[in-house]
Every structure is written in structure tokens, then in C-alpha cells.
Predict the structure of DMT family transporter.
Amino acid sequence: MTAAGPLIISPDALLVKLIGMPDSQALLWRGLLTALGFLAVLALRLRGAIVPAFRRCGLTGLGVALLFGASNIGFVLGNHYTRGGNVLMILAGTPLIAALLSRLFLHERQPRRTWLAIGLCLTGTSLIVLDDAGPGAWQGNACALMSALCMAANFTLCRTRPGIDMSPILVLSGVLVAVAAGMAGVVQGVAPMLPAPARAGYLALLCLVLLPLGFTLIQRGPLYLPAAEVSLLMLLETVVGTLWVWWILGERPSRLAFAGGALVLGTLLGKALLARHLERCRARSVQAGSG
């Protein structure tokens, strides 16, 4: 379930390129439309039990909404002010940040295989974005770091409420992003504008369908997995998103990028197979003990 989320949102970078709106306008529409999309997903899932779902999230849900919204703002502004490669390289550190936060606040110990997977995936992601990385602007790099910190903190915070689904609160996060973008537009003297018809279709596909579906699955991940594991699976977006840009826009990745993508995918697949093997071994041990 968690791995399906990054695969669904993988065209994000491609569609942002095709939409090509100024940052404040992109955030405004991204916030408004994703809020509607999350609400539609929630209505289909819960069929009328929306208010109780919000209540179960409690004050922790408010923190999740703020962190998720801040992560989205950091991602969009990071791509606006610095190189895309810098953003992706910094975001690749999210699993490491999540593992450290979980160890510090939740006292969750990660097995060695998880730390090894984090290191290999960091290396692989660095190879993917090496051609597009550089000094960049410090403002953009700082926004990307804010995005990584907030996403890792979001997943860690979700783990403090075991068994509580925090995905409904993403509706509020979209509203918060739209309000922040609207206020920024007022300060900058930029009036809200409708996207061009050609861009409107891409915007609707991204914000009404892909992001709500994908992030709903991702946000449910901490119900079943440690925060570091969820963050690791999000690196699938980087690999598959690079392939989308290559296929549609003809921006062919370098050989190093192919090698990096193979390293990330191989690491995640190997880790999943190993975890499955260990799970089966534990199940057999339990059965043997009960017998």
C-alpha cells in the first residue's frame, strides 16, 4: 500500500514542468484542489463518517496537517529557487532524518538492514540527480531541507498515535497551503489567476486525482511501518519520476542516473524480500513453539 503511493504521485515533477505556473499561484491551486481531492477520497472511503474521522486525529492531526502543508510548500519553493537535483538530493535524506527522529522521540531502534538500505538509497539518489545538482541558491536549498524535515517529522508524529489513521487530516493541510499562498500573493501584489486551459487539465489531474490518492496511501503507511521505512519507500517517486520526464519530455537520464535508479530499486526490493523471509521464519518459529 505504501509503495503504491509514490508510484501514483511519480508524475508530479513532470506535470509541474508542464503546468509552469509562478510559485505562489502553483501553491494556491495546489492547496485548493488537493483539499477537494482529499475530501473526495475521504467521502468515498468513509461514506459519511468524515467528522468522526477528523475528531479521532485530535491535536496530533493538527500537527500532521501543519507539517504536511509545510513540506509541500518547501518542495514547491525549493524547486523554484534552486536546482531540481538539489531538491531531490536533500529529500533523499528524509529516511535518515525520520530514523533519527524516531530513535530520539519514540525510542524506535532500526535494524542494521534499514540503516544499510538508507545509505544505499542515498547513494543511488545522488547518482540520479548528480547532473542537475550544483551550488544552487541557499533559499531553495533551505526550503528543500524544510520539506525533508517536515515530512520526516510528519511520519514520526503519526507513530505517536498507533492505530489512528491520520490521512483524513490532509484535507486541512491543503486548505492551510492555499491560505499561506494566498497571503503570500497579497504581500507580493499578485492577484489570483486562472490557469490557461491547456494547463488546467494537467493541474486537475495532478491535484484532484494523483496527489490525493497517492498521499492518502503514503499517510496511512505509519499505521503499519516505522517512519524511516515509509520515507524509504517514498524514494520510488524519484526513480519513476525521472523515467516519466525521460519518456514524455525526452530528457534522457545519464548512465550514472540509470545506475543510481537500479541501486535504489534493487535495495528496496532486496529489503522487502529479506523482511518477508524473516517474517515467514518468525511465523514458523511461533507455529513450532505452539505445537
Summary: The mean pLDDT is 87. The first helix runs from residue 4 to 9. Residues 4-290 form one domain. Residues 79 and 227 are 24 Å apart (CA to CA).
